[in-house]
Amino acid sequence: MKKHNLCGVGVAMITPFKGDQSCDWEALGKMIDYVIEGGVDYIVALGTTAETPTLTEEEKREIIRFTREKIASRVPLVVGAGGNNTKAVIEHINKMDLEDVEALLCVTPYYNKPSQEGLYLHYKAIAESSPRPIILYNVPGRTGVNMTAETTCRLAADCPNIIAVKEASGKIDQIEQIIKNVPKDFLVLSGDDGMTIDVIRKGGDGVISVAADAFPKCFTRVVELCNQGLFDRAEEAYKPLDEAVSALFEQGNPTGVKAALNLLGLIENELRLPLVPATEQLMKKMERLIREYDLC
Hints:
By secondary structure, this protein is an alpha/beta fold. It has one domain: TIM Barrel, CATH 3.20.20. Helices cover 47% and strands 13% of the residues. It has helices at residues 25-37, 57-71, 86-95, 116-129, 140-143, 149-158, 172-181, 196-201, 211-214, 216-227, 231-248, 255-263, 280-292; strands spanning 8-12, 42-45, 77-80, 101-107, 134-138, 162-167, 187-190, 206-209. An eight-stranded parallel β-barrel has the order 1-2-3-4-5-6-7-8, surrounded by six helices. Helix 4 (116-129) links the parallel strand 4 (101-107) and strand 5 (134-138). The longest helix is centred in the C-terminal third of the chain and has 18 residues, at 231-248. It is globular.
């Protein structure tokens, strides 16, 4: 069976803010052009990197509309739509304007720490009611629960409307087990920039990346080499990015990537509480890395 087209590099888009904390639509438009021209394969709106918990419902609707219109069918659009109340997630999805939305990225329920059976039934209910395909998102460092390989594979086998998983467990053995046991048309995407090469080497299909916000040309080149089976060359291409990618997450996400984008002149360095901008020390470090490795 043919795999879905959400392979390669998806970029977890930030939400730029102005100094008054309002959404910066001009900057968002520039960002969308920047990453598409940089070679990304699709855009993910309203994920973790977008500071989605701090956005109003009206802002979320406007971000989807604006992003869809700015993309203008150049690349697919994926939209985040997860939560820890199954019924509320289903109701939210049914109210969304999903025109030209390729798929929905649904994070594992956070805070209430469901069992594996709870995770299975949560996603099964969402998949059965959603008018768009679902991408599972396993990120235990943020949610407090790890969805096991067994649960992911069970969902992949039982729910045709679940097409992929974004795996950010950091466990390469778990990811490899998923790759080996899911249906052939199911996508396994890295949720960690630093593990992208290893995941594709094991048979994965790409990454949903934070680094591609700031360094799309460099990062997409790495993945292109991986997809050609040129893993030694991919490792070489990744070396200039290695320290910068680590720095992006040094003080949390999207603190680091917004610092880098500010230094690149693309956005104001504004976040909404409880997140705060990068320290002066990190800004200087990021500036040095961008200059030293010619990452702009």
